[in-house]
Specification:
356 residues; alpha+beta; disordered N terminus
Amino acid sequence: MSDRAAGRVLFLSSIVLSSVLSLGCNRKPHLVPAGPDSTAAIPSDSTAMYVQIARDAWSSGDDNGRAADLTARLILNRMRTDKDQTLGTAAREFVDSLGMGAEVSGRDPAAVNLFSRSDPTGGSWPFLFWRDAGTVHYQPLDASGLHLSGLAAEPSDPGKAQRIATLFMGSSANGQQPFAFVWTRPPNGPSWRLTQSLGTDSLGRSGNARIVEGSPDGTVLEARTYTVAKGFDECAVCPHVYQVRRLRWDTPGLVTASLTAEHTPYSTFVDFVTALSVGDRAKAQQLVSDGSLLTAADGYGWGSPTSRWRLAPGMTATSTELLIFRGAKEAYRVHFVPHGDDWVISAFEPSSRSLD
């Protein structure tokens, strides 16, 4: 090939890449234009070329957001071709065949969260795909930078608004943190809009969450999370006091159906110290097997916030004997006995900080 011909090929290739990557990357669901997504269509005879362009865009790392946009359009093209598969299955098979980084949840609708395999912590770009009148549509979602964990679609009747809930996981100083978003699409509406966001106030600060399918009590989402109590130190992998929240569909969106605490000896100790620190003697009395233990705890100053508490290394929340450190010098061995479906403190004494 002559230098002139090679230059022409290079020039044309640069035009194709520039035009593809200049396609819109708007991340506001309510700003996605109405219509049949004609701008997202990819000519079938050019699919292989666009796949290579997408791969090259991800590999370069220059603009992963635009690489994600192109990949989403390729996924849309595959979904419109594989009409006999669910959208989730079509997306999984496509990204697996290309070796691209993606998290896929749901059947129809389905959510796909795209990221760079070479830089999995460098950001993520979620998209929602759905069918309307036999045609597959898509739009980006405002949840970038999170990990997609699940999707739940509310059963709906024709002619009524459709709702879905997407579950994402983020990172915090104490580990994983769940976030849930409810998206609503009016009957025959061109796009989805965000109608509810659930974060730390609704799901808890740190822990795990999952989408629940086919629950007899109507539960859609279950979160098992914890918040470190005042006056305590807990690392991300340390024992915690967990609460389990179960949510279901209702008129406002997802609402709490139940909230229960996991009862362990460690949670009893945390509740006991917390009750002492706020002067709730009645609550503290319920957490000991004998009233004299309340007087003994007062003698050691357990209710004063002078130093922080933490479990000794290797302790588990369910152990009936806990070695617990306070500050830099104090240590106590605390003993527990079952009481109904909970635990109460049966004895405690000062101890060395040795784990033996």
